[in-house]
Design a protein that fits this description.
about 20% helix; alpha+beta
Length: about 750
Amino acid sequence: MILQNQRLLAEICDNTGALVRLMDKRSGMEFVNVLPETACRVVARYERNGQLTGDTTFQPEDASVQPLENGAALCWNMAQGITVHASIALEEDGLSFRSYADCGPKTQLQLVEYPVIGGMDDWNGAEMIHSFATGLRVKDPLKHFKPGEGVRYAPYPECFSGASMQFYAYYAPGRGGLLFMAEDGESHQKWLNLYRNGDSMEATMMYGFEEMGMGKSFRADYSFKVRLLQGNGWSEPASLYKQWAVRQPWCSMGCLNDREHCEWLLKKVGLSTFGVCAGQDRSNYIRRYHKDANTSVFHVLGPDWAHTTQSFSGHNPGYSLDGWVPTNFRQANLEAIREVGDYFAPFEFDLFGHARAEESDEIKRKAEANRQLFPEKGHTYSCDAYDFFMMCPCEEHTHDMHVARDKQIVAESGANAMYYDISANNLLHVCLKEDHHHPKGGGNELTKAYRRIYRDTKEACAEAKNDRYFPVGTEMINEVFLPELDFYQARAGAQPCSALEMGPYKSLLNEGIAELIPLFAFVYHEYGAVRMDGWGKVVEEVGDLFYDNVAKIYLWGGLYEINHEYSPGEAFDGKETRPEDHYYNWKRSFGYEYAPGRARYIGQFANLRTGAGNPYLAYGEMMPPPAIDVPQRDKHYYHYNHGPQAIFSGDIQLPAVRASAWKRTDGKVGYAIFLTNTELDEQRVKLQLNAADFPGAEKVVLRTGFGNGEPQETRMGPLKDETLTLTLKLPARTPVMLEIL
């Protein structure tokens, strides 16, 4: 069966129902031209000899393909009474897929995988992008992935090992490609896959674990769309996705400029720390970071403040409120934070819910009953094991304890915010308990429960603080939590050092084949959730990749993060923090001395963010990056902040200059291009400014000198003609701002 319009041609195999051809009629480029292995897959369990089997994958035994107006209706029969129904609709620039599955009374559906779109070759230099973590690009994936590798089993809305948004793309730069996106505004459990299958790339969507039971059907009540691209880099598919995404419920509250938000976090803070001990005196670090970076700092203090032990070695206050409070913050730290004008949030292992050994059997029974039941190991369809003891967010005890606990913590400590580790963005939104307040599987019911917990906790903490607004943040981010979350911690900006969310692609990161790209910031920056990133240390030993990481994180709208989690604080006069005083014992000393010059380098960006760059880097909308031609340079790195057994070192080639472009969102006409030469020698950059890209703008101003003094301003000429060509001399390791007004 052929489906076509002026833009594209698609062919559906009459025998299998699979998409076997897809062509852009304007360019003549063929995207799919090989018969895939199958049209769909179903994972199910079925009753055999009175027992339920393990997960079994089923494929079609026969297919029915019927024409519809501008589309087709499809049906596949499988064993154990499983039937999959689907429809394909022809759209102006692509195809739209919908599906549902039924089964017999003795079969339990687990997952449905449809559509399966295979047969995509390397197109002579194709790239893939994915919303894995917050943005991943891989060059020539078919060449560098082994069969089965890529982004496979990337769960949504869990984004620690999965997708933070519902799209990915595969394209040949300058020629064309395909955008794949799920238009689900209700955050159902799904997996967004793009991986190598045999000798070609394959794209699929999986859904399930939503409302499970013998004989129950699964339905994806939303479209999965495939749209044609021109191949204009990663910002093209991100722009198309954004057109849909910002109309969804998670953006209904409006941009930051149009709604209530945490102003100190957006306007005053220029730097963040993570994991500085809360229960040990670390006031010297608090004062020194603030002084040398010359900015207010947001500290997510370490977990060692809880009434009973909270550490990285498995100790947690757990199920009962009295394990958490009263708190044990070291007053010297809180006094230093208030004295210098900084802000802080306590670190919490958010919903860890096991009872402590000394608690009663009754408490232990309640904790077990409240526990979130994940699929067993090997059946999570994720690279994470999910062997945590977590409280199910749908249970009233979880909600009530979370709200009461954090309200008391804020009342006792005066905390400015709360931070939740291993929370909604790290966990499958699946609970298989059948006696909880959700269907078996849970899916979007768990997502809604997390949102309710965050909302009610924010209100309770604001009341305790006597403030109108109280911010909360989490480890990692997902689009559906934008109304509730104000900040998030990430480590991907430390690439290739990061061992966590970009860990599965570490070898490709080292080789420059894979890289982090700012997809999440491009789609959502003006809607909130400040990124804390970098996983950094302020010592010379970490190498000159440090200068690139700092520049990249700020120019992409984030806050650089100095991290104390798995290693000592920088040494002052030869003395560093001791492992036995920490919540994680790194079992060795390093002795790396604090480097105030590196703190002052960070301070340039901090003052840029809180000063002239604030309408853009804190509140603005990211634009496609400017086209600049700069040399590649070797950057050395040495990363020791993941325990003594996980020290990463090496060299990586990166551009000598980082650049980004932004526009204002406060109703004023304003655009900015930020550039940073991360090398020691001067770099020259040629820029062409096209007037059509900056509607309403008339003049161009160069702003420099974002250290301790007043920034300098230089008029660069009017923007009257179609293009204005500028050649800029960029000094060593200094950010500059080109503002177009």
